[in-house]
TrEMBL record:
Subcellular location per the Swiss-Prot or TrEMBL entry: Cell inner membrane; Cytoplasm
Comment field on protein domains: Composed of three domains: the N-terminal N domain, which is responsible for interactions with the ribosome, the central G domain, which binds GTP, and the C-terminal M domain, which binds the RNA and the signal sequence of the RNC.
Protein name: Signal recognition particle protein
Coverage span on the entire protein: 1 to 296 of 477
Enzyme kind, highest EC tier: hydrolase
Length: 296
């Protein structure tokens, strides 16, 4: 992940660092290369435009060019802009004081939604001492409910007993009621996915969100899908009030476009990153650390 972007930016900065003095033209030339590097990493075009504009504006500030180490200053500015693009600081989950917190997972089929639900349940249980209940609202694929039940067994996290024939909204309400009665802190609702965005999926998702008023609606997207992840996010954002993103397959060789575009496109932070198939492969997303991986 990020390897070729890191290489590209590394060579742009190598040239800058070696220079004593910099002119505005030098800075603009370097920023053009940064632009190309970001586009090649599959970062969404409007995001690249804003990024380069901001970084250029800051970098041609008189103090920077006239400073003793202008090259290093420019590198620092790009680093700061990258951290801001990624969200500045890790943002945790909104867990209200009065339980149960209701967290709804949305995303396309295959994005890693069900796996991320189980990973998040395990994370909240083991790292934060929460009592978690998971429920699958995917009534279109009976195998999906069974998959979550099995994951619950593997992680030792409770799952809502399956009752055939119930609607997603009814299951969600039953989950919340059970959580209240049985003293669960968090309810994780794993909603249905489709292979691509369709009207039925969107309508069902909006209906569940309206009925349950979740504290978090987390969009699960696959980092490997690049620009597709960006268009998926745009469509989901138009339907439900997303509160955050979980980016999966960060262990793969994604170019980084989805990771770098997601916050700007959704206006919401990436809260967690999936880093493998195992159920403990979930990390709190840390913008500083990720920017560090890109800039070395
Ligand atoms: P869903 O259809 O969105 O619920 O997707 P699943 O949760 O069933 O995941 C689809 C596949 O992706 C499974 O084989 C998962 O093990 C795998 N997967 C999920 N998250 C990650 C991740 O962060 N890294 C890797 N390498 N694989 C993942």
């Amino acid at each position: 992940m990020f390897d070729s972007l890191a290489d590209r930016l590394g060579s742009v900065f190598e040239k800058l660092r070696g220079r004593g003095a910099l002119t505005e033209l030098d800075v603009r030339a370097a920023m053009r290369e940064v632009r190309i590097a970001l586009l090649e990493a599959d970062v969404a075009l409007p995001v690249v435009k804003d990024f380069v504009e901001q970084a250029t504006e800051r970098a041609i500030g008189a103090e920077v060019i006239r400073s003793v180490t202008p090259g290093q200053q420019v590198v620092k500015i790009v680093n700061d802009c990258l951290v801001e693009l990624l969200g500045s600081e890790h943002e945790g989950l909104n867990i209200p004081a009065t339980p149960p917190a209701v967290l709804m997972m949305v995303g396309l089929q295959g994005s890693g939604k069900t796996t991320s639900t189980a990973k998040l349940a395990k994370f909240l249980t083991e790292r934060q001492g929460k009592k978690v209940l998971m429920a699958s609202l995917d009534v279109a694929r009976p195998a999906a409910q069974e998959q979550l039940r099995v994951l619950g067994e593997q992680t030792g996290v409770a799952t809502l007993p399956i009752i055939a024939g119930q609607s997603p909204v009814t299951i969600a309400e039953r989950a919340r009621q059970s959580a209240k009665l049985q003293g669960f802190d968090v309810v994780l609702l794993d909603t249905a996915g489709r292979l691509s965005v369709d009207a039925a999926l969107m309508a069902e998702m909006a209906q569940i969100a309206n009925a349950t008023q979740p504290h978090e609606i987390l969009l699960v997207v696959d980092a490997l899908t690049g620009q597709d992840a960006v268009s998926t996010a745009t469509l989901f954002k138009a339907e439900v009030p997303l509160t955050g993103v979980i980016l999966t397959r960060m262990d793969g060789d994604a170019r980084g476009g989805a990771a770098l575009s997601m916050r700007a496109i959704t206006g919401k932070p990436i809260k967690f990153a999936g880093t493998g198939e195992k159920l403990d492969a979930l990390e709190a997303f840390d913008p500083q650390r990720v920017a560090g991986r890109i800039l070395g």
